[in-house]
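Sample entry (123 residues):
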Amino acid sequence: MSLVELSKLNHRKNLVQWQQLVQDCRQSGMTVRAWCAQNGISEKSYYYRQKKVWDAAQQQKLEQDATATTELPAIIPCAPPIEPVTEELRHAPALVLRSANWTVEVAADCNPELLRLALRAVK
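Predicted structure, serialized as tokens:
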């Protein structure tokens, strides 16, 4: 194992410990100052660790969002149908989008704003 890999592993271990420390403080019902005094940790150290945990969580969320965004299908703007829509076809979806957790059926005469809101909700 290289020095870089060991450093990353050590950083990850520290983040896990710091996350537990922050969680313990928040769940204690005490102020940060009182909790730090009771646990022998300086407030400056506590807030430093809290920021590192927060930054790591935000970075992980950004990476997950980037991955999720690339997996979404392209969104094609709604436009009125070129051919007249018969009553029979009006009730059948013109477009069906499926994922493992959701399905969106879009009628030919859909409201573009409603479609935008629906796609935002399943994102």
